[in-house]
Each structure stands twice: as C-alpha cells, then as structure tokens.
C-alpha cells in the first residue's frame, strides 16, 4: 500500500488492543494512513473497516508475531523498503509475573525478544529509512519502571530501561537528521497486558491506574511539544529535567585513569 496521505503511513505494532488501539484511532484522526501489526488478525480487520469508514484513511493489516524472528524480519523489511512510512510506533510488548529466581525462562526469553530485540530491529530499520529521507518519527513505548526497577520484577523493568536508553542514544545519533524520537513512560495503564502476563492488578490502588485514552492523549501532547521523554503522569517536568541534570553531572567522573580514593 502506498500512502496517499500527506502525513504518510504510520506503522503501529501491538495495534489490536490497549495502548496500540488508542494510538491507531488518534493517528487516523490526525490523517495518517495506517499499517496495523499484531497477532490477532480478526481484531485488526475489524478495526481497519471502522477506521476506513470513520476517518477516510487507508488501512493495511499485517498479521505478525514479533516474538518470532521471521515475522520481525518481514516487518523490518517493510520499514526499509516502503518510503511512504513516516512514523513507527514500537508499542508491542508483554510483561512477566514473578521474580527472576522463580520465573519461566522461556517466557522471559519471549518477552526479551518482543520488548528488546524486535524494538531494536524495527527502530534501526526506521532510523535508516527516515534519516535518508530527512523526515519521520519513531515513538517507543517504555515504562516508568525503567526509573524505579525495584518496584517491579527484574526482567520487565530491565527491558523497559533498555527501551529508554535506546531511545536516548538514538535521539543523539539522529540529531540534525530531521527525525523526531520519543520514549513514552506510562505508569500503570488499564489494558489487557496484566491478564496476559498472569498478574493480578486488582490490588493496585485506583488512583495509580490511568485509562489508556488519557495516557495516549498525554503522550501525543508530549510528542507535539517535541519531548524526547514523556511521562504522562508527572506533574512537573522540572523534576525530570533535574533528574537528567544530575545524571549528566556524573559524566566528568564516570571514566578516569585511576580509581576513586575510597577504593584505595
């Protein structure tokens, strides 16, 4: 499908439910043609019919399981070859229940494949295409657990810390090349991810849970403001700025020719 929209074509992973489904709706309303990627083809087809009718945009459905390398390579190739794609939303992701010591290693490997490997390969393909064209946007969905890993299990937090770090590094690499990069760090969001991962979210206080539409609208507001990192629930952006400043204050002392005096 060649996009006919002046906005271009938005490729959205995990587009069939939750955060991805809301993003799809909002991007269609903004005039993007859509390339919807998820495992549940029936759900995608149902959404596609409605989106075409309501927003008069082109919508293509691609069934893919991004825990499988062959499917990742298929989507990656589309990103590299389709010059009409102007936005990548790396949204697909899963969580895992339990501590590292008792977790199912195969489940963790599948999560790392989806949350880390697929995100990296697709972001790399988009970065190549978009920087060559001098335009485009890459949005990666991370999580606030990247900042407070002690509050959740080790592996999921680590995958989202990776997404945050990847996004920050990628933004530096693409600086001046016309490509906008954003990481979105939601807190607890009301989606199906909890049930799918076997986590009981009933015990989470209601004041900590944000509805997906509100989260996505805040994330898109941050995108419009050109934010690199968007934390939808953070009241004062100065707190994030102070965090970044403290991190960079460490920089001059992070690599030196001799160890600190306290280690001698």
UniProtKB/TrEMBL annotation:
Signal peptide: none annotated. Gene3D superfamilies: NAD(P)-binding Rossmann-like Domain (3.40.50.720). GO terms for molecular function: 3-oxoacyl-[acyl-carrier-protein] reductase (NADPH) activity. It comes from the Bacteria. The keyword Endoplasmic reticulum does not apply. Keywords: Oxidoreductase. Its EC number is 1.1.1.100. It is an enzyme of class 1 (oxidoreductase). Belongs to the short-chain dehydrogenases/reductases (SDR) family. PANTHER family: ALCOHOL DEHYDROGENASE. This is Short-chain dehydrogenase. It comes from Pseudomonas chlororaphis. The lineage of its organism: Bacteria, Pseudomonadati, Pseudomonadota, Gammaproteobacteria, Pseudomonadales. The gene is fabG_6.
């Amino acid at each position: 499908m060649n996009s006919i929209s002046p906005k271009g074509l938005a490729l959205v992973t995990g587009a069939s439910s939750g955060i991805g489904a809301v993003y799809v709706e909002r991007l269609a309303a903004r005039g993007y043609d859509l390339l919807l990627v998820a495992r549940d083809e029936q759900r995608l087809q149902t959404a596609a019919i409605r989106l075409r009718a309501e927003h008069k945009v082109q919508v293509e459905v691609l069934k893919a399981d991004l825990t499988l390398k062959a499917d990742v390579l298929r989507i990656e190739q589309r990103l590299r070859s389709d010059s009409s794609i102007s936005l990548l939303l790396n949204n697909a992701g899963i969580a895992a229940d339990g501590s590292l010591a008792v977790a199912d290693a195969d489940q963790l490997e599948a999560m790392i494949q989806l949350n880390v490997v697929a995100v990296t390969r697709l972001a790399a393909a988009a970065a190549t295409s978009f920087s060559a064209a001098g335009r485009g946007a890459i949005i990666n969905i991370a999580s606030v657990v990247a900042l407070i890993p002690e509050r959740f299990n080790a592996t999921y937090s680590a995958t989202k810390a990776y997404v945050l770090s990847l996004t920050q590094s990628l933004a530096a690499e693409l600086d001046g090349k016309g490509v906008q990069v954003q990481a979105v760090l939601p807190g607890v969001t009301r989606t199906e991810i909890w049930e799918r991962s076997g986590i009981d979210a009933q015990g989470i206080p209601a004041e900590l849970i944000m509805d997906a539409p509100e989260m996505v609208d805040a994330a898109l507001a941050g995108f419009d403001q050109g934010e690199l990192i968007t934390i939808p629930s953070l009241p004062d952006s100065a707190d994030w700025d102070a965090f970044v400043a403290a991190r960079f204050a460490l920089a001059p002392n992070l690599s030196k020719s001799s160890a600190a005096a306290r280690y001698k």
